[in-house]
Amino acid sequence: MKIQEFRSSFSAAAPPADLTEQAKALWHAGKGDWNRAHQIVQDLPDKFSSQIHAFLHRQEGDLSNASYWYDKAGSKMPSLSLERELEMLTESALSS
What we know:
This protein is an all-alpha fold. The chain contains 6 helices and no strands.
């Protein structure tokens, strides 16, 4: 799935069925449903999920919690915009 197709699906009530759990979380984040996005990734043990979890806490404004999750993902909190980080995470999720 291409990112434009992914964004176009935001008008639907639910994410496309063939998305990974991480992509579903990003879909909900893209639609502004922080709680649902967080529910999906909070217990996933892989580093990419931790990166998404970190992004969500950064988006929420909880930078201390975000920093913890960036560390867990093996990365640093980025200085780029939230929109750009969401786009980069989504591109990664759709390419895997």
